[in-house]
Specification:
Helix content is 30%, strand content 40%. A 4-stranded antiparallel β-sheet has the order 1-2-3-4, with no helix packed on it.
C-alpha cells in the first residue's frame, strides 16, 4: 500500500499534467446552442472542426462542430 507521501506525489503529478493540458488546449468560452462552452481547440488536422466541452444542466458532454461565436460577441 502506498504511503501518504507517495499518494500525494501521484496527485501532484496528475495536477501538473492536467494544468499543462488545459494551458495548451483552452481557447476560451464560446456559445454552443446558446450555452457557454469551453473551446478546447481544433479537433482535426486542418482546423475546420473545434472540440467543445459543454455543461448541460450539470452533465458534461463533448461536441465537435464548426467554430462557434465567442461568448459576448
Amino acid at each position: 500500500m502506498p504511503s501518504a507521501a507517495e499518494k500525494m506525489a501521484g496527485v501532484l503529478n496528475d495536477m501538473n499534467v492536467f494544468r499543462d493540458f488545459v494551458q495548451q488546449a483552452f481557447r476560451g468560452i464560446d456559445l454552443v446552442d446558446g450555452k457557454p462552452a469551453v473551446n478546447m481547440g481544433p479537433f482535426d488536422a486542418d482546423g475546420k472542426k473545434t472540440l467543445y466541452g459543454i455543461n448541460d444542466d450539470g452533465k458534461i458532454r463533448y461536441d465537435v462542430r464548426d467554430k462557434q461565436p465567442r461568448m459576448g460577441e
